[in-house]
Automatic annotation (TrEMBL):
Domain Rieske, chain residue ranges per copy: 48-137
Keywords, alphabetical: 2Fe-2S, Iron, Iron-sulfur, Metal-binding, Oxidoreductase
InterPro entries: Cholesterol_7-desaturase, DUF5914, Rieske_2Fe-2S, Rieske_2Fe-2S_sf
Family annotation (PROSITE patterns): RIESKE
Organism the protein comes from: Streptomyces caeni
Pfam families in the cross-refs: DUF5914, Rieske
Lineage, highest ranks first: Bacteria, Bacillati, Actinomycetota, Actinomycetes, Kitasatosporales
Keyword Metal-binding attributed: yes
Keyword field contains Iron: yes
Name listed for the protein in its UniProt record: DUF5914 domain-containing protein
Length: 333
């Protein structure tokens, strides 16, 4: 039966209070989550890491990120191509993240060493990829896998008809803790009652075959206001070790995608791992009003990022708690 309605909203006629909803802990089997996580970690990434949003690339300064302790900068060269490389000046170690870009040339603020994108003075470029929403760099020395020519980018709707927004947050955990959070869809209505209600996991990779694509299928309603909700079916998959994708397959916004990417940053002053969550929302709809929504993207994007940020305040607490227990041998899963 289709979840599609003439208008996107539904009315919950018999809403169940939070503490009276059906417990999901028996369904959320630790072994199922752990095995799905293990299989995700075995999939190839080709040593590609998400640096940030394409929209954050500017003509006057580089896009910078520390990945697994390696400083990286990305900018647009004079001929329009993207350039990536180490974020440490080869002269005396200045932070290139603070350096301006002038006519496609990155100019070090300390002594004026100019980098145009090719090898120079000991500086070597890195492979870089712009998928239209996110910017990736390939760090073979960090990843240690056989390299791929391009990252494993999930299937997305046509960018020309989509509304996109990218949220970035950081937490004290490993990338696999972020992935483990996303491979536990059972926590949604309990941990995020302000956003999700009536959640049922209708399919999970219980004992999935080695090498197969794990998929968690969820029927859930997004809360709008009061008893007004938007029911959808969503499918969660992990195409590579640091990415989990949610595809809306039925209901309002069918075809939309939410990608969660986890990028290791390095360690903090106490030796604890830090991870960046880069979440890309690529939303589509065939409703008439969606064209107006796309035109209002500059107004809507901050709201979309704020909504993602509210969820990730909770989900990063989940990931951080998992890392804390794992690192001290106390995690029950």
């Amino acid at each position: 039966m289709s979840l599609r309605r003439p208008i996107p909203l539904s009315l919950r006629r018999r809403p169940v209070p939070w503490d009276r909803q059906r417990p999901t802990w028996r369904d959320a089997k630790p072994a199922v989550i752990a095995q799905a996580l293990r299989r995700s970690q075995a999939r190839p990434s080709g040593n590609w890491y998400v640096v940030g949003a394409t929209r954050d690339l500017r003509a006057d300064r580089p896009l910078a990120r520390t990945v697994a302790g390696q400083e990286v900068v990305v900018w647009q060269a004079a001929d329009g191509r993207l350039v990536a490389g180490p974020g440490i000046c080869p002269h005396l170690g200045a932070p290139l993240r603070d350096s301006p870009v002038r006519c496609g040339t990155l100019v070090c603020r300390w002594h004026g060493l100019a980098l145009e994108g090719g090898p120079y003075a000991g500086w070597r470029p890195l492979p870089v990829h712009d998928d239209g929403v996110l910017v990736w760099v390939r760090l073979d020395a960090v990843g240690g896998e056989p390299p791929l020519d391009a990252p494993v980018v999930p299937v997305r709707p046509d960018g020309e008809r989509a509304l996109t927004a990218v949220y970035v947050g950081t937490g004290t955990c490993e990338p696999e803790d972020v992935v483990a959070n996303r491979l536990d869809p059972w926590h949604g209505a309990w941990f995020h009652p302000y956003s999700f209600v009536d959640l049922t996991v209708v399919g999970s990779p219980d004992g999935g075959a080695e090498g197969s694509e794990d998929a968690f299928t969820v029927d859930v309603s997004f809360k709008v206001a009061g008893r007004l909700v938007v029911p959808v079916r969503a499918v969660f998959t992990a195409p590579e070790p640091r990415t989990v994708v949610m595809h809306i397959t039925r209901g309002e916004g069918a075809g939309s995608v939410v990608e969660t990417h986890a990028t290791p940053l390095g360690t903090d002053a106490h030796g604890r791992p830090r991870t960046a969550v880069v979440e890309a929302v690529v939303a589509v709809s065939d409703r008439r009003g969606f064209a107006a929504a796309r035109r209002a993207a500059p107004v809507l994007r901050p709201l979309m990022r704020a909504a993602a940020g509210r969820l990730w305040r909770d989900d990063l607490a989940y990931a951080e708690r998992r890392w804390e227990l794992q690192s001290t041998g106390r995690h029950p899963g």
